[in-house]
Design brief:
The chain is α/β, with parallel strands linked by helices. 46% of the residues lie in helices and 9% in strands. The protein contains twelve helices and seven strands. The strands form two sheets. A four-stranded parallel beta sheet has the order 6-5-4-7, with helices on one face. A three-stranded antiparallel beta sheet has the order 1-3-2. Helix 5 links the parallel strand 4 and strand 5. The protein is globular, with a radius of gyration of 22 Å. The relative contact order is 0.12.
Length: 346
């Protein structure tokens, strides 16, 4: 069960409770499921009971008890635990990682993208400032992946920015009569061009727009202290595992991974929500930080993928490899949206 499927399952539980007369509410359009917070447990948690408590005229915990009875026993749901004032903490069955991995590998680097244009038209306008143009370029990429038609204009534009950082604008000059969204992050304190395309874009995009970016050689360091290195290294390691597995005569096949790190599964499942939030808030930094979280969750898992010693490749190894490939796919897709290369060798 993927996060999207779990959200639908929660809504179905609400609908069943309403049909049975246990809740008198309007079924909401969506149910948010996310990684459990402090004090939570399981794979995912939802605050749907708190959301429905007031219209239902019942305490949140009572609403949660009602919904729990309709969630326990559903295919793919192993257990539901109530915590706090009425949070539903949901543990998924062993097939859940396989469904998520299969969804990611099927979609490829477009995992989390909209299936079709949504009809929205967005104008972005930025001052004659390199960081503003890079942020606008990344925002445009993210909006387009969510189905929007985007036009980027700038007060001024230097041609070397395209050659050096791969940015583009659709028009130069004052904003049009129809007010666009103004992209005006805190300017960089130094010229990032000497860092090269990938490191420069990361340096400008990883901090939030209201934070001053650091422009220094730390973005070029090939060590764990550099977040960009960790993200690209995790991607390269996932690709190396695929090559190594082929040499051993087996390939990835989604399946149950009993020892799968929950942090990694949660981060992979959260990817579509992160892309949607980054588009809605015009904040590509959210994607950058999410990629770091995916990489940090994946790196300890990757050494467990291949057979060790005299082990023969098994279904467990194929499932672990599929999970590793899914992580690499999410990392590659996110880096691409930021305009950064995801090399197979590092």
């Amino acid at each position: 069960m993927t996060p999207a499927e779990l959200s639908s399952t929660v809504l179905h539980a609400v609908r069943r409770a309403v049909d049975a007369g246990e809740l008198d509410v309007t079924v909401p359009a969506r149910a948010v499921v996310a990684t459990p917070g402090p004090g939570g447990c399981g794979d995912y948690a939802t605050n749907i009971a708190l959301q429905l408590a007031r219209p239902a005229g019942q305490p949140p915990y009572r609403v949660a008890e009602v919904l729990r009875s309709y969630l326990v026993g559903v295919d793919g749901v192993a257990d539901v635990v109530l915590t706090g004032p009425g949070f539903l903490n949901i543990s998924l069955g062993g097939a859940a990682p396989a469904a998520l991995v299969e969804e990611i590998l099927s979609a490829g680097t477009r995992y989390g993208h909209a299936d079709a244009p949504d009809g929205s038209v967005v104008g972005l306008h930025c001052p004659h400032d390199l960081r503003a143009v890079v942020v606008a370029d990344a925002v445009a990429r993210v909006l387009r992946c969510q189905g929007a038609l985007v036009r980027v204009t700038a007060e001024g534009f230097d041609r070397e920015w395209t050659a050096a950082l791969g940015v583009r604008v659709d028009g130069v000059g004052p904003a049009s009569a129809s007010p666009p969204v103004t992209v005006r992050p805190v300017p960089a304190p130094a010229d990032p061009l000497p860092l090269g395309r990938d490191a420069a874009r990361w340096a400008l995009l990883h901090p939030a727009a209201h934070d001053r970016p650091r422009i220094g050689d730390e973005h070029l360091a090939q060590r764990e202290g550099n977040p960009l290195f960790r993200v690209r290294y995790a991607h390269a390691r996932s690709r190396a595992l695929t090559r190594n597995a082929a040499d051993l005569g087996f390939a990835a096949e989604p399946g149950p991974v009993p020892d799968a790190p929950q942090e990694l599964l949660a981060a992979l499942g959260d990817h579509p929500r992160v892309l949607a939030a980054a588009a809605a808030h015009r904040a590509p930094d959210r994607i950058a930080r999410h990629l770091v979280a995916v990489a940090d969750a994946a790196l300890p898992f990757l050494p467990t993928v291949l057979p060790r010693g005299g082990e023969k490749p098994s279904a467990a190894h194929r499932a672990r490899l599929a999970l590793a490939e899914a992580a690499g796919t999410v990392l590659a897709g996110g880096l691409t949206l930021l305009g950064i290369d995801a090399p197979d060798h590092l």
